[in-house]
Amino acid sequence: MGLFHLSIGNLSSKLEKFSAFEAGLKGGIPAEIGNLTELIQLRLDGNQMSGNIPLSLKHLSKLQGLYLHNNNFKGSIPDDICDIRSLSDLGLSGNQLSGAIPKCLGNLTSLRQLFLDSNKLVSTIPSGLWGLKDLLALDLSLNSLSGFLPREVGDLVAAVYINLSVNQLSESIPSTVGSLQNLINLSLSHNSFEGLIPVTIGSMVGLENLDLSYNNISGSVPKSLQNLQHLNSFDVSFNALSGEIPSDGPFMNFTMDSFKGNQALCGNPRFGVPPCRVVVSSRRSKTTEVKFAFFVLGGVLAFATILCAGFVFLRHKRRRKDEAITEENGGVLNIIIQGISYFELSRATQHFNESNLLGMGGFGSVYRGILGDGKAIAVKVFKQQSEAAFKSFDVECEVLRNISHRNVTKVISSCSNGEFKALVLEYMPRGNLEKWLYSHNYFLDFTQRLNIMIDVASALEYLHHGYSTPIVHCDLKPSNVLLDEEMVAHVSDFGLSKLLLGKEESLVITQTLATLGYIAPGIVSTRCDIYSYGVMLMETFTRKKPSDDMFGGDVRLKAWIERSVPESTYSVIDANLVMDLDKEEGDKILKSTSSIFELAFKCSAESPYDRITMKEALAELHKIKGRAY
After folding, report:
1. Exactly one of 117, 475, 548, 574 is catalytic; which is it?
2. Burial, 479: exposed, middle or buried (Cβ in 10 Å; 0-12, 13-18, 19+)?
3. How many CB atoms neighbour CB 200 within 10 A?
4. Which of 220, 218, 212 is nearest to 191 (CA)?
């Protein structure tokens, strides 16, 4: 311990990273640690350290990662940690910490990962934690937490991992968990939850692992869970469930271990349960049943005939109405290759079922669908009775009707009438760039990130220079960059785009458009997209959003990188890019990333006239790639 104290006292106050994990350290953390005010990362995990967590940590105002897990620290978690406003990763798992979880942790909006599991924490979960909308991973398991799970758990929309198992939580599981569309792992086992399994869990399309075992949950297993195509681990054992176990979808791969300890379940014998009883009425004689069947069949046929006739009439009337609307809009719907009706889209998306929801935006929602021929599509449905949404639909139609480029999302068709407007797009099975940058179970290596940004630059170069009328996207950001099966990037969402036809567009001020942090203030021009592209370059290789609380906006993101490039690029690059690489390979990536950041600075210059063009940016990226390999 004395040696550790001595080494801390001799360290430079400008040190940015201190790592001593699994180093056999014993004793406590010296208060002098607070003198290292430039620290960005502190790793002391996997040692035999003890004592209390020092209050002097609050002086590490620039700290982003604090890793103290798997030690023997005791006492409570000090509120002073909440003074570290830039903290994104907090790992205190596997200690002897007691008392309540500090309520002020809910104020650390920069938090991305919070691991407090395997301690002796008591009391309830602070309500503020449910307001951390950018939190990716939350683990509070193996403690003695009590209370209930509030509806606000559904506000953790970015989360991919939540583990609250082995606690004393009770009451019912709120239906709002269905809002966690990005969640991959959910464990609520070994608690005292009761009530029903929420049907809305069936809409959590990314869910892979669900553990509700060892609770007091009753009712049936919802059939909606059959929609979870990626669910490969499912455990509801030792509850009070009853009724039939679903047999389709992921349930085809589950075994009896998923359902044991429930006395009233029935279904396929391979689940270790008795078959469900089929109740047949014996009151009606066989002859009566046959007569009744013929009577019903006749009625159904008559009704179907009337329905078909009505459908043909309405379809003809709707088609004439759609044609009139198309003519009235000056040919806006010329993008239609083959018209798709509302009924076909409804059937393809299972009546716009939430289980097929891919995402939601300001102007509407996007659903995954399967056409009758088996083709997968994405259906962008614009908000009804919204003038802004319908205007966005018209803009996208106008912009996309003649565009053809491998890195721009292709429009297959559209559907439009007075009450409903939708675009039918190529389905992108790999999701968007934002998911790959920030989700817990996804990773892009250096080459993949560089190729994606070259694809985006190619799309912008075409929009700015390869089309008869320059097109400004106006909302370039990672969530609008979609990835196909081969990880080829496609720029999407042209709802805010501008066609630079004349002087009218020059009056539009970008502050009223797009997403803060990515758009340059000023007059709309192609140079606005170049600015956004520069911000995206920086974000892609640092894994830091321009809106991150540790910055005061996108200018701060740029300034944060500028002070470290090229001498200390390692301090701003996403650490995952160089982790576990040998020195030669790591140095090569750092050198290439420095060149990428230099290019990003040229794109995001304050004055639009100082920014390079997309032609120049694309050429420079190809040079960087050539030098890297």
Report:
1. 475
2. middle
3. 20
4. 212
- In which region does residue 190 sit, left (phi positive, over 0), alpha (psi from -120 to 50) or beta (all else)? left
Task: Using CB atoms within 10 Å of the CB of residue 341, give its burial: 0 to 12 exposed, 13 to 18 middle, 19+ buried.
Answer: middle
Cis before 608 (ω within 30):
no
The CATH code of the domain at 329-426 is: 3.30.200.20
Q: Does 475 qualify as catalytic in the annotation? A: yes
Class of domain 433-628: mainly alpha
Q: Which tokens belong to 34?
A: 């607070």
Domain 136-151+160-173+181-277 belongs to what topology?
A: 3.80.10
Fold matches, 1-111 and 136-151+160-173+181-277: yes
Whether 53 and 78 have beta carbons less than 8 Å apart is answered as yes
> Please, are residues 372 and 366 in contact by the beta-carbon 8 Å criterion?
no
Indicate the fold that domain 1-111 takes in CATH. 3.80.10
Rounded-to-integer distance, Cα 575 and Cα 41, Å: 11
Give me the average pLDDT of each 10-residue run along the chain (629 residues): 53 81 88 88 91 92 92 94 92 94 93 93 93 91 93 91 93 92 92 93 91 93 92 93 92 90 88 76 42 46 46 42 34 42 88 86 85 88 76 73 82 79 90 91 92 95 81 88 94 71 39 62 82 95 88 73 92 91 91 96 92 93 87
What are the residue ranges spanned by the domains of the chain? 1-111, 136-151+160-173+181-277, 329-426, 433-628
pTM, two decimals, is 0.49
Pair 402, 391: CB distance under 8 Å? no
